[in-house]
Please model this.
Amino acid sequence: MLSLVRSALSPAARSSSSRLMMSTLAPGRLLQGAKWNYQLLEPVIGDKTHRATIYKAKVNPRDNDVHAPQWAIIKAANDETTKKQLDRELKCYGLPNVASTPIFRQMYDKIDDNTIALEWLDNTLQEVKYEPNMHHYALIEKVLHAALTGSVILGDHGYVDVSYKPSNILISGMGTNNVTVKLGDFGQILPVGVYTGTQPYAMRAPEVFCGKPCTALSQVWSTAAMILVWMRPGVLGIHGSKSEFLQEAWCMAKIKRLFPDQFAGLEPEDSILEAIITTRPELRTMQTFKGVTHELGVAREVKDVLRIMFTLNWNVRPSASAILALEEFHALKKLVGGCFT
Ligand SMILES: Nc1ncnc2c1ncn2[C@@H]1O[C@H](COP(=O)(O)OP(=O)(O)O)[C@@H](O)[C@H]1O
Ligand SMILES: [Mg+2]
Model:
């Protein structure tokens, strides 16, 4: 009967009904999971771009469970879109090696069809301000390791995470010698090679701008881009674009300015990029990757790995597993080795 009523509801009515259901989440409310109970604390605002309803919660263990964590995050769908993303997230935790590999944020409980409880971490990468020091190079190595390993594991199952961005990288223990980096937000994990026009603009690979489907190799580019925009926000993406009609060309023009030598010898079919660059002084004077990383004081070992990941031609861009095996990646590990125990 309930399903009859449900299917008779219009999409708008259905989405307002799920909103109504979610609005019952409020500070102080106790949610019962199969594993633990969760007392809702305050809502998490994050970078204000996320769509799901997020609460920090205190874990109330049962039967003196000594393994229970102190905190959790409650993630709840609040409309049709976030419900679809939550379903994808749940499906992802069901893939082999996801729930069991520590680079992924752990899922604790499915509370109901719209609500899950997940591991709490202290910060996102977005909240950490880059500084050219050994602790931050070590953090970069950990982020690269998590993001690339995640890409390999998902790729093995035929999926790609198209939402890599600093606010989806979770960190605990910053400032200590026991830093943990985990990947969060699996709402945008999609079948490899099917979807076009995905990835946040600043993290979008050139081939995806050119209309090709997003693949595991596009994720290699977006991982490097995520590190670069973390170090220098706005260096990639739509920041500074004045026309909403030219946003994609604007982003590609920035890629061209960062890596001019990789465009050398390519067919001049990108006259629109040239036009944008010529008419906008901030792009004309924009630094190359070499200049930006020099200005930021980035260690050579970090630059070497990023430069290889930023291979414009996806036909020759190394895979995530090839990057992890690179001599340059080992050199970065060696540079930061001993920084954290
Ligand atoms: N485990 C966590 N620990 C701390 N903060 C988190 C955690 N998970 C998410 N957040 C915060 O909530 C925001 C949104 O969570 P996320 O899972 O990315 O949801 P959405 O799918 O809506 O983007 C994150 O960007 C981050 O600021
Ligand atoms: Mg998110």
